[in-house]
Design a protein that fits this description.
19% of the residues lie in helices and 41% in strands. By secondary structure, it is α+β, with helices and mostly antiparallel strands. A hairpin with a 4-residue loop joins β9 (183-192) and β10 (197-210). The longest helix is centred in the N-terminal third of the chain and has 16 residues, at 36-51. The protein is elongated, with a radius of gyration of 25 Å. The N and C termini lie far apart (53 Å).
């Protein structure tokens, strides 16, 4: 008879500038009672490898038991997507990791999958064959690392941000509303050196991705303003390294304010809602 062992829940930060995500790691299912203790240890090692990259919060055991009883759940790598979503939402997890150990003598076969609770998709899967139990420790870090990389991250930009880009020739005050996905709306009030004020509204897209060259993050924003008469204000095409504070409420970029690209100006955007 198959046995579902204890569940370990952990929260970890996948990167310094991103809030922690919640992952539910189920002890792997095993057919052979002789391996139960080792399977439990194996799952503990997986949890340990995952949490190396961030903070850990353990969900109360009574909450886990309640959800397990509600769905009569038994963990295995072939869990259907509907059940995975129900369990993940019930325990407040963004992803769950399930797996099994087939103890067929030598070698041992291990199968694992990481499932996105919200989308119901498989984010990562792995198969391992072991001649000895200690080989698991050498293969585990790679699987854990891939899991961390593929966990979906929350959007830290969603909301309204404001900031002013100032030069000797003009002051551009921005109000940017970032949507949940990649869409954004941009309002800019520009005041030139003569005191003339121009107000524009536009829309576009944005992204915040890793930069393989610098190892940091690149913030990109492209937007157009249809009624702009000033060439500089007709479109935004930003693609610059960004520095974000630890609270994720402010970030700065150094931008070229016009097409001449002679001198950079610093723009700091702060989240207001």
């Amino acid at each position: 008879m198959k046995k579902s062992i204890l569940i370990s829940i952990l929260m970890f930060a996948a990167a310094v500038v991103l809030p922690a995500q919640t992952v539910a790691v189920f002890d792997f299912d095993c057919d052979d009672e002789a391996y139960y203790d080792k399977v439990s240890t194996m799952t503990d090692l997986l949890v340990h490898e995952l949490v190396k990259g961030g903070d850990v919060t353990v969900v109360e055991r009574k909450k886990i038991d309640k959800v397990m009883a509600e769905y009569s759940f038994q963990a295995n790598p072939y869990i259907d997507i509907t059940t995975a979503k129900q369990m993940g939402k019930g325990i407040g997890a963004d992803c769950i990791i399930v797996g099994s150990v087939a103890a067929l003598g030598c070698p041992l076969y291990i199968t694992a999958r990481m499932i996105d609770v919200e989308k119901g998709t498989v984010l990562h899967s792995a198969k391992m064959s072991l001649n000895f139990w200690n080989e698991y420790e050498s293969q585990l870090p790679k699987f854990a690392s891939e899991c961390v990389k593929k966990i979906p991250q929350p959007n830290i930009f969603t909301g309204v941000w404001t900031g002013t880009l100032s030069t000797d020739e003009f002051d551009d005050s921005y109000e940017i509303t970032f949507g949940e996905k990649s869409k954004c709306n941009v309002k800019v009030v520009s005041v030139d050196s003569d005191g003339k004020e121009t107000a524009l509204e536009g829309s576009g897209t944005y992204s915040y991705t890793s930069d393989s060259f610098s190892g940091g993050k690149i913030f990109k924003l492209n937007a157009t303003f249809r009624n702009a008469k000033t060439k500089r204000l007709r479109k935004i095409e930003w693609a610059y390294p960004a520095s974000m504070n630890r609270d994720h409420t402010e970030f700065s970029i150094n931008v070229y304010p016009d097409s001449a690209k002679k001198e950079l100006a610093r723009l700091t955007l702060s989240k207001v809602e």
